[in-house]
Amino acid sequence: MDSVLTYAVALSSVTIPFIILLLDPLRGIPGPLLARWTSLWMVYHSRKGDMHLVMIALHEKYGSIVRTGPNEVSISDPLAVKTIYGAGSKFRKSEWYSVWQGHRKFDLFAERDETVHRAQRRLVSNVYSMDTLKRFEPWVDKAIKNLLAKLSTLGTTSVDMGRWAQLFAFDVIGEVTFSKPFGFVDAGKDDGSFNQIDIALKSAAWIGQVPWLFWAHDRVSPLIGNWLGVGARHGSLRALAASETASRKSRGSDHRDMLEMLMDVHRQKPADMNENAVLSMATSNIFAGSDTTGISIAALLYFLCKHPRCKDTLMAEINGAIGEGAPEGVVPLSAALQLKYLQACIYEALRCHPAVGMSLPRVVPQGGLEFHGRFLPASTIVGTNPWVIHRDRNIFGHDAETFRPERWLDQDRSQMDRFFFAFGAGSRTCIGRNLSWIEISKLVPTLLLRFEIGLVDPESTPEEDCWWFVKQHGILIKLKSRS
Ligand code: HEM
Ligand SMILES: *[C@@H]1O[C@H](CO)[C@@H](O)[C@H](O)[C@H]1NC(C)=O
Questions:
Q1: Is 59 in contact with 28 (CB distance < 8 Å)?
Q2: Is the model's pTM score more than 0.70?
Q3: How far apart are CA 203 and CA 49, in angstroms?
Q4: Residue 231's closest CA among 99, 98, 48?
Q5: Ligand nearest to the CA of 423
Q6: Who's near 17: CB < 8 A, 6+ residues apart?
Q7: For the chain, which terminus, N or C, has the lower number of CB atoms within 10 Å?
Q8: What InterPro entries has UniProt attached to this entry (predicted)?
């Protein structure tokens, strides 16, 4: 049904009078012809799912500033990351995010008022801190053991690693949020939630480019019903979080899980954080914490298989440090964080394949933005794309196209750290960064100690599509038990 609406957009947005072009403040900025006239260009590629690659190609062709819409530009110069997203910047999130938020009052990811966001983030940031998360380590261990036991039963056949990684990440979210895994790894499948997330992502990616259409739909939806998939984030996924919350409350738990910590905030500050806000955070754990982590684990395993030399170096490091020490156990976080080559591999996988593949759009504040001799007036939408930033040769080296973990070890890495953009930047940096890092750091070496891994088809490259997240399809891996 989304496509009917696309035609409505097509009809209504190509009629820009010529006179406006002459007054157009962005007219000197190069880019695809269609994009200067209409948001349709952005809508088209957001729907098609190739934005991460298209933006790399466009910046190669047109240079560091590219016009992607009548009122939107993309910048490839990493310095712009500091200007746009840096601490204290006045660039607020664009209306693209409004379609995620809808009418909800508490939405950390989508909130566009920085003052409101700052207060909300302060309420919950402690729940996501490394110190808090370290206490959850036994539950992550439990989920890892469960996954490995399950994988053992699958034998040496071909295993869709992207899918298993997401099933695993979902179970971890259940463990740390509600003291209960969703049971997806045991079942070997999800409960339909993955599809709901995909539908919401695919829908929001494009309708966020024409937010007025979303809000028009919102106004008439009491009459015509819901025609947009983005509703799933507020609908079935929130319903899932609500039922898990309810059953967690009646069941009780001896763990102090995230839900309990969030409820404590609610009890202490009921006016700032009501029960809807607690539910909103639980929902966002489910929505933001599974795909992203699954994608990142799959990317790392894929790159290791594609680069056997790196896999061997990593194996040597793991064997040297952990050795036979943990055949039944799980690699402890404290040890994993000390494995320098492993950590370099994680950085490199997230550099080569950051989970988010679209520009993180922001609004130029009062006073405008002067960049590379161009002037962008206030209210222009501007952003940088992690896939573009991570391929900058000045920062990451002349071989930025290649997976080479050593770059994080053998050169001064301070610039690379500064412009590592997989988790965004500034006040809106990913709040779940440490949780995903714990999962990846522990699961990957534990898995490698247990199994010899390789691609079923070593020549293959997985298909991927970009609907906000760049998700791979069919990373088929064969596992051979080492024992
Ligand atoms: C490797 C895994 C992950 C990646 C690559 C990732 C990436 C990102 C990025 C790029 C942003 C910034 C978006 C923007 O500026 O528009 C973000 C924000 C966010 N992420 Fe993650 N994420 C990951 C895991 C997680 C997990 C595990 C959770 C929750 C349990 C989570 C929850 C959030 C939330 C709530 C925000 C909004 C933060 C705010 O605006 O204050 N993410 N993430
Ligand atoms: C934990 O998160 C903080 C803040 O985002 C970050 O600076 C730090 O590097 C993270 N630690 C690990 C081990 O990823």
A1: no
A2: yes
A3: 11
A4: 99
A5: 1
A6: none
A7: C
A8: Cyt_P450, Cyt_P450_CS, Cyt_P450_E_grp-I, Cyt_P450_sf, Cytochrome_P450_monoxygenase
Please state whether beta strands 72-75 and 381-383 pair in parallel, antiparallel, or not at all (unpaired).
parallel
Tokens of 223: 């009459």
Euclidean distance between CA atoms 437 and 169, whole angstroms: 12
Residues 6+ apart with CB under 8 A from 480: 156, 451, 452, 453, 454
Nearest CA, atom 11, ligand 2: 434
Å from CA of 327 to ligand 2 middle: 28
- Lowest-confidence region among 88-102, 232-246, 248-262, 302-316: 232-246
Secondary structure percentages of the chain, helix, strand, coil, to 5: 60, 10, 30
Q: For 63-85, write each residue's pLDDT tens digit.
A: 999 999 999 999 999 999 999 99
Please state, as a whole number, how many other Cβ atoms lie within 10 Å of the Cβ of residue 90: 13
3-state secondary structure of 26: coil
User: Cβ of 255: how many Cβ atoms within 10 Å?
Assistant: 17
pLDDT digits (tens, 9 = 90+) for 384-406: 999 999 999 999 999 999 999 99
DSSP secondary structure of 150-205: HHHHHTTSEEEHHHHHHHHHHHHHHHHHHSS---HHHHTS-SSHHHHHHHHHHHHH
| Angstrom distance (rounded) from CA 207 to CA 15 | 19
What integer pLDDT is reported at residue 410 of this predicted model? Answer: 83
Report residue 66: phi and psi, to 5°: -125, 135
- Say if residues 31 and 66 touch (Cβ distance below 8 Å): yes
Give residues with Cβ within 8 angstroms of 65, minimum separation 6: 29, 30, 73, 74, 75, 76, 371, 372, 374
Q: Is the pLDDT of residue 14 over 80?
A: no
pLDDT of residue 88: 86
Q: What's the CA gap between 319 and 330, in Å, rounded?
A: 13
Reported as a single tens digit per residue, the pLDDT across 294-317 is 999 999 999 999 999 999 999 999
In this predicted structure, what is the pLDDT of residue 397?
A: 95
Tokens (6 digits) for 455: 């691609």
**Structural domains of the chain ordered from first start:** 1-481 (1.10.630.10)
State pLDDT tens for residues 435-465. 999 999 999 999 999 999 999 999 989 999 9
Q: Compute the distance from residue 205 Cα to the ligand 1 centre, in Å.
A: 16
345 assigned binding-site residue:
no
| Residue whose CA is at the smallest distance from ligand 2 atom 12 | 434
- Under the banding of pLDDT at 50, 70 and 90, the label for residue 255 is confident
What whole-number distance in Å separates Cα of residue 68 and Cα of residue 316?
A: 46
CA neighbor of 207 nearest in space, from 49, 355, 5, 16: 5
What is the atom index within ligand 2 of the atom nearest the CA of 434?
A: 1
* Ligand 2 pocket residues where CB is under 6 Å: 130, 337, 429, 433-434, 437
